[in-house]
Design brief:
64% of the residues lie in helices and 10% in strands. It is mainly α and 118 residues long. The protein has one domain (11-117). A two-stranded antiparallel sheet has the order 1-2. α1 packs antiparallel against α2. The chain is flat and about 50 Å long.
């Protein structure tokens, strides 16, 4: 789970429903990351994600400050969540890899079952 420039970390999986063909996006991360994102950090992303060359120098400065604050906040929340769940970050990284792998296997199995029924 590598962070994006805003510091957001998640596991994202897209599913296409067999019968309707509708695309379903599923995101997973720590509950505290979601809570703070909902409260304030997603607004930073929405404010700056499509802004580019038209920014003034002052806007570029605010953008850099807000994105930097978002990144630091997300990193701190993620690190605390990993620490509280595991004794150290190495164990957290290993657990994320194992749980991601187990989840991916269960998704593949579920998808195979869906395909075989169709």
């Amino acid at each position: 789970m590598m962070p994006n420039p805003y510091g957001w970390r998640m596991i994202a999986i897209d599913f296409r429903l067999a019968q309707s063909g509708m695309l379903v996006e599923h995101y997973m991360t720590y509950a505290d990351c979601l809570a703070v994102n909902d409260l304030m950090l997603h607004a930073v992303y929405e404010r700056w994600r499509n802004r580019g060359d038209e920014l003034t120098i002052g806007e570029r400065r605010r953008q850099a400050q807000q994105i930097g604050l978002s990144r630091l906040t997300n990193e701190a929340i993620f690190a605390e969540a990993a620490r509280s769940e595991h004794a150290n970050l190495d164990e957290a990284r290993q657990a994320v890899a194992v749980s991601t792998s187990a989840f991916a296997r269960s998704v593949v199995q579920g998808l195979e079952e869906l395909i075989s029924v169709s």
